[in-house]
Amino acid sequence: MSGPQVISLGCRLNAAESEAMRRLAAGQDDLIIVNSCAVTNEAVRQTRQAIRKAKRARPEARVVVTGCAAQVEPDTFAAMPEVSRVVGNAEKLAPSSFRRKPESLSATGAAASFMEIPAFAGMTSGADVRVSDIFAVRETAPHLVAGFAERARAFVEVQNGCDHRCTFCIIPFGRGNSRSVPAGLVVERVKALVGEGFREVVLTGVDVTSYGPDLPGAPTLGLLIERILRHVPDLPRLRLSSLDCIEIDPRLEEIVAHEPRFMPHLHMSLQAGDDMVLKRMKRRHSRAQAVATVARLKAKRPELAIGADLIAGFPTETEEMHANSLALVEECDIVMGHIFPYSPKRGTPAARMPQVAPAAVKARARRLREACARRKATWLEGMVGTVQRVLVEKDGRGHAENFAPVQVEKSRSSRAKSRGAHDDSVQRPSTSLGTNEVVDVRIVSATADTLVGVPA
Length: 456
Hints:
By secondary structure, the protein is α/β, with parallel strands linked by helices. It has helices at about 10-25, 40-55, 70, 75-80, 170-175, 185-195, 220-230, 250-260, 275-280, 285-300, 320-330, 360-380, 410-420; strands spanning about 5-10, 30-35, 60-65, 85, 130, 155, 160, 180, 200-205, 235-240, 265-270, 305-310, 335-340, 385-395, 395-400, 405-410, 440-445, 450-455.
């Protein structure tokens, strides 16, 4: 193995930072870096599971755990005998954090006040914890690297942290307060990625639509995107990660509606479709505002595809309230739903609210997934016969501009021959299509979750 093994869980921001850490720890073949997620109890459980599995596979390797779960629950991971070191989010982009005997420096090079926990009852690993106060961090940077392993798109961090305090969310305590990357730095990094051959860039952050107020002149996210598109004319495709519908500024709305290089796909942090639940979540939008925003954008750009995060079984949610969230799938035309069964997160206000019975939470999550799956299947079926511009990512698989997943076959004739030889089986993916290539693909069929097409 050349360099560290990196295991990334959670969001796109984690994915970007994982690749940055891979470069920072280059040459350390005996190292496993686990970049954790804390968004749900299940995410923390999966992190622990990944640590144990990785250590079993490579017992001689050092395991360093970092990310949001490490930031908010350092003692949980320090107690695991598999773990050598726990590193906070402020420290994880400092090269010294991954050395066998790291210097006591923060990611910015300034002296940091770490929590040092050499050992405690039940801990056999002797792990050290290097986690400083995340709320003391005032700046962030676009943590980019020369390439993203097995990825055709690059993720650019433009913002980190969050100033909001949704009652279900622990992430502000893992990421700190909102802070933005100066536009000039973002533009230079995007230029560099395009120069390396990337055809698509995704702007990412914890609360990406809160970009700008902390910078001189308080630029908006829309203004940042205008600058990127103007100064990087060779960038073919630009996307956003999850955004808050209530914070879409007028410039951004015009770009979403009319800019062909901005991909027609938005993933929104809606969370619920009932006003009382939204209020108890401490969200900043109403149901009507979410519906109106989607309707307005789709009226201007009908091909716009909507994804959304939705929580099932939030504390105090009744069946009537849940029905409002189910109806939101249709009213907002949600074709890519990320459904989270609510689970109480220690340290959040929602964990102290009256809880919904686990069986009801599970059933409501299933109904939301089924509603989104039906909507997605109808959406995909409606694209059969059309030509889609597809960014090929790996083994003939890729995504259309609207982020619909596409399997690209060699040709109609090879597909027909394949079916003749193997009944109704699908032709094996083409290996002649290059990764990071954008091709026109005629869609010939659709499964429940994927389009199938041939080069047009």
